[in-house]
Amino acid sequence: MTDLLIRNAALVATVDVDRRELSGGWVAITGGLVSGVGSSVDPEPAADRAIDADGCLVTPGLVNTHHHLYQNLTRAYTPMTSAPLFGWLQTLYPLWTAAIDEESEFLAAWVGLAELALSGCTTSSDHHYLHPPRAGDLLGAEIAAAADIGMRFHPTYGSMSLSVKDGGLPPDDAVRDEDDILAESERHVARHHDSSHDSMVQIALAPCSPFSVSTDLMIRSAELAERLGVRLHTHLAENSEDDEFAIASFGMRPVDYYEHCGWMTDRTWGAHVVMPNPEEVGRLGSAGVGIAHCPSSNMILASGIAPVVDMHHAGCHVGLGCDGSSSADSASLWQEARLSMLAGKLKSGADKMTARLALEIATRGGAGCLGRVGEIGELSVGAVGDVAVWKMDGPIFAGVLDDPIEGWLRCGPTSAWHTIVAGRPVVENGLLVSPKLDEMLADHRIAARRFQPA
Ligand SMILES: [Zn+2]
């Protein structure tokens, strides 16, 4: 017997290996996995529970490949709403370092993941690089939040080791000893990483950026990830300041530095990647490097428009990221998908970036970044039962008759009607299923005030 049947959809966009689109389609989920997919002419299985998706677009759950969840504690912080990347970071580092603890990390992750679920996201990464001494087990706190809300989670053990006195960007009290960082990384992988097919938690290693860790830590992190069989993540070629820093500090451009440190492999995914030239795009693609495309953040920090269409066609796994909630500052994967379509058209031509390609980046591409193609980001038998159901009615969708996928991303703003993770609804009828939301928001507001001096 099927556990859950989502039936009668206007269209099921499978984003599977054949990119099937099924009119009047249905998706069956059993034991947390997709057990069947069909169109209106295929017989439906009997199910314990059915969701009527009449008039809805059904897609795989969206995949978020880059975030800093704790940053929603300093959203739209007034002194920093108009600064580029380096100045923005240097003002916020001391506030974050002074206030972060397990309780605030749990609240930030819970609220941030709830926001993502409401936008159709079912799997999120988090690049948590802030581990000041005495802050406690921050990775453990956010993993507990993800489990409580029911989201599939890929936290990364991030790190900073190069402070201002050593030529880096963060303050002295925000960085850690490199041997400690590697030992902590290994401990977190041993405690939390689950490599099984339908895993709910996977850990990656993630030195923060070339301007906050040493070359030695970049190299040793890559070696440790290889030994432990986990993925590697960092910020890469984010803006012109990043380019200038790499040339001044290492005598080479960021993509060359990435390769120099042993990172030019399909085990890695880089965030932003706004600045690669055409030759570098070719090398990234040949290596199968993943790209976390973060269009809102890239626009708000005026970093530029990443060449995502070129990187996708070169062979990169291009996924979407909402980036930290105090740079982006929203965390809606639907909105990132729409912006990736708009920015892609502006950068590469109106016909080069479609809603279908944006949907692919938001789902299957993200699975590639996280090393889980065939498991997440598609609706096919054996993949995980992670589904987003999008209601397509009301004034904003009036007139959308023939192409629900273009309509889904061109019209809006919108959020998911149902978000289902491993066959369990996290969002139902547009509302979070958990009864804790009001309580969490009240506590989050108190915590945020500690981060933002009045
Ligand atoms: Zn980031």
Explain this structure.
The protein has 454 residues and is an alpha/beta fold. It has 14 helices and 19 strands. The chain has helices at residues 85-99, 102-118, 138-149, 178-192, 215-228, 240-250, 254-260, 278-287, 295-300, 308-314, 333-348, 355-369, 404-410, 437-451, and strands spanning 2-7, 11-13, 21-23, 26-30, 33-38, 47-52, 56-60, 62-64, 121-128, 152-159, 204-207, 231-236, 268-272, 290-293, 317-320, 387-391, 418-421, 424-428, 431-432. Helix 2 packs parallel to helix 3 (138-149), helix 2 packs across helix 14 and helix 8 crosses helix 10 (308-314). The termini are far apart. It binds zinc ion.
Features:
454 residues; alpha/beta; Urease, subunit C, domain 1; TIM Barrel; 2 domains; 8-stranded parallel β-sheet; 7-stranded mixed β-sheet; 19 strands; binds zinc ion
Rounded to the nearest angstrom, the radius of gyration is: 21 Å
- Strand residue percentage: 15-25%
SSE class: alpha/beta
Question: What is the CATH superfamily label of the largest domain?
Answer: Metal-dependent hydrolases
Ligands, deduplicated: zinc ion
Q: Helical element count?
A: 14
Straight-line N-to-C gap: 57 Å
State the oligomer: single chain
Tell me the count of domains. 2
Question: Spatial order of the strands in the main sheet?
Answer: 8-9-10-11-12-13-14-15
Q: What's the CATH architecture name of the largest domain?
A: Alpha-Beta Barrel
